[in-house]
Amino acid sequence: MLKNQLATPQDYHLILSIWEKSALATHDFLSPNDLDFYKEQIPKFLDHVELRVWSIDGQQPIGFSGTSDNELDMLFLDPEKIGGGYGHQILTWLIEHKQINKIDVNEQNHRAKDFYLKHGFKIVSRSERDGFDKPYPILHLEK
Q1: In a 3-state reduction of DSSP, which class is residue 127?
Q2: What are the N-acetyltransferase domain coordinates in residue numbering (predicted)?
């Protein structure tokens, strides 16, 4: 059974490890320099979201999510667990318990974009560059 717990600073090493593995597997559109740039940026955001670590039976960590208000700011899974239904369970829980109805997703991350669209989110706008003014278009989704 999938469980979650609020993350603490002691979990940050685990979270960053999951982020890096997941980003390497799903963000192949990023240049190596930009991947390093984002790796440096991610820790700065961890204290500004409601951060949850997701695990199987509370034992095996498989991913993390970060939310603020009604927006999903980050959702990353261990790449070995992608496609196993865990993302669906996490997103469903976040929609039901945190009233998540907004998500931004990289346009080039086709798998994530399709995942959110299958869950009833719609593209409401597009930004040509990301929040760091990098050339990675962002799709703004709402439910």
Answers
A1: strand
A2: 2-143
